[in-house]
Design brief:
Helix content is 49%, strand content 12%. The chain has helices spanning 8-19, 46-57, 82-99, 105-120, 126-132; strands spanning 23-25, 37-39, 65-69, 75-79. The model has no long low-confidence stretch (mean pLDDT 81).
């Protein structure tokens, strides 16, 4: 018979795993003082994980890479500039307010293509089209 007692943090993690939750909240701060969500698989703090990844890969949000599939099935990467990252975040925040749930970049891309197609159908001038991309 196993008489070992687990810590409250470990019990919360195991309960979250049993429910099938990917994350769980526990009031005990991590070793870096973060009190927030933790991954139920490892018990690691989500904030610490984000900081670790940012430090490990050395890229700020403005330098994120987008992978695009070209017509010939070759994948290429495009760096987002700071203005594009800000526009993306603003659009995501507005969509969250309007529809009440987060929207993925692929859905934003799909909606953006539909809006662009609709706009181009109205026969805009070349200068107004170029203004969209500057």
């Amino acid at each position: 018979m196993n008489t070992q007692q687990h810590s409250p943090l470990r019990r919360a993690q195991e309960a979250a795993r049993a429910r099938g939750d990917k994350t769980f909240f526990h009031e005990q701060p991590c070793r870096n003082g973060h009190t927030g969500l933790r991954y139920s698989a490892s018990g690691n703090c989500i904030q610490c994980n984000a900081i670790h990844n940012r430090n490990r890969y050395g890229k700020s949000d403005a330098e994120r890479q987008l992978k695009l599939a070209l017509a010939n099935c070759v994948r290429t990467q495009v760096s987002q500039d700071t203005a594009t990252v800000a526009d993306t975040k603003a659009a995501k925040d507005k969509l969250l307010q309007i529809i009440g749930r987060p929207v993925s970049l692929s859905l934003m891309h799909k909606g953006g293509i539909r809006l662009l197609n609709s706009y181009l159908s109205s026969a805009p001038t070349a200068s107004s089209v170029m203004a969209l991309f500057s």
